[in-house]
Amino acid sequence: MKSTYTSTAKALHWLIVALLIVQFLLAWTMPHIGRDTPLTMLINLHFSFGMLILFVVVVRLIWRVTHAEPEPEDSVPPWQHRSAQLVHRLLYLLLLVVPILGWINANWRDYPVTLFSLFQMPKIMATRAPGWQWTGDLHGLLANYAMLALVGLHVVGALYHYLIRRDQVLQRMLPGWPGKASSVR
Fold it and tell me: I want to staple 23 with a disulfide (CB 3.0 to 4.6 A). Which of 30, 49, 54, 67 is the partner?
């Protein structure tokens, strides 16, 4: 049997998936943030889940750097492996950049960013700092287009391996998959 990801890597992966689903649902149902939009519970939850995603992604990246990734399936052509690596790297980049842009824009708009009202995150941008109003637009564009496109590619790739190639690529990230464990990311 091929090596699989560790339970920790799998848990962090699926936690990020769940958090992203919640985050996109919040983003699509909260009010559009304009010049005079009051802070609402949905906006506060969006900020909180964004901070939580940022934290979990940092933990996931630390785990990935400190634990070896399982070897790719023997049947996976090198170009597919390199393509998957590129998609993963771009996803990680967006999972860091998108919440930070949201945080900057919230600070620019003078919205407090809290983690579920437990504590307030530090302000990383001055209110109405000249030249930074674009951060909210870029946050939305990257989340709604680039992030969704990469997530879609990731899902299509996993389903391709499962349904068409019928190899074990997808199963290696499934909880409880009994593949040979390795100290994997």
Answer: 49
